Fold this sequence. Notes:
Chain A is mainly β. Chain A has no helices and 11 strands. In chain A, strand 6 and strand 7 form a beta hairpin.
Amino acid sequence: xxNVEQHPSTLSVQEGDSAVIxxxxxxxASNYFPWYKQELGKRPQLIxxxxxxxxxxxxxxxxxxxxxxxxxxxxxxxxxxxxxxxxYFCAAGGxxxxxxxxxxxxxxxxxx
Amino acid sequence: xAQVTQNPRYLITVTGKKLTVTCSQNMNHEYMSWYxxxxxxxxxxxxxxxxxxxxxxxxVPEGYKVSRKEKRNFPLILESPSPNQTSLYFCASSPSRGxxxxxxxxxxxxxxxxx
Lengths: 112, 115
């Protein structure tokens, strides 16, 4: 089945700086790559997703890039703000396994 | 309002006492899933269902049961809970069909403590 590795597990950045979270996947047939944000005590919520026919997608301060050859994708957050502090999960789907396979999450800390 | 609901939100129980956590969605989604979330381990899938009367094991199915008699409901059953099932549980639904994946919508979570 699919295996998704996510790094780093914790990321601390200064407010206003950029943050990058990286994920790799194992199933070359996977074609859907969402990113979820989970604030403390709340449910995970989708913030951006990308399909394998696209290399990059951007939505205001967040962007996701996908390298199908290397089987990795990344989340980029620019001009970080305190409200960006949360746990972020990547996931992969559409391949040999049903549903989504999630990474273990990255705790993003924005330092004032 | 389109949503996934779970009940109860919090539950403290004792070892061996059967319990059920309900999950319901009003978006007519075919795909539903249960996850448990533990510190450092991320979201691990327990069971999922691609449609009514179709359920499959996820990564950590031991000690759990599910049923999908209706499209909107997907209850999680712990026949004999043990302390290692203390966790935060999320139900999710998605319009995903087969190998075509879409966003999963999560319920608010159920915090379960087994003593």
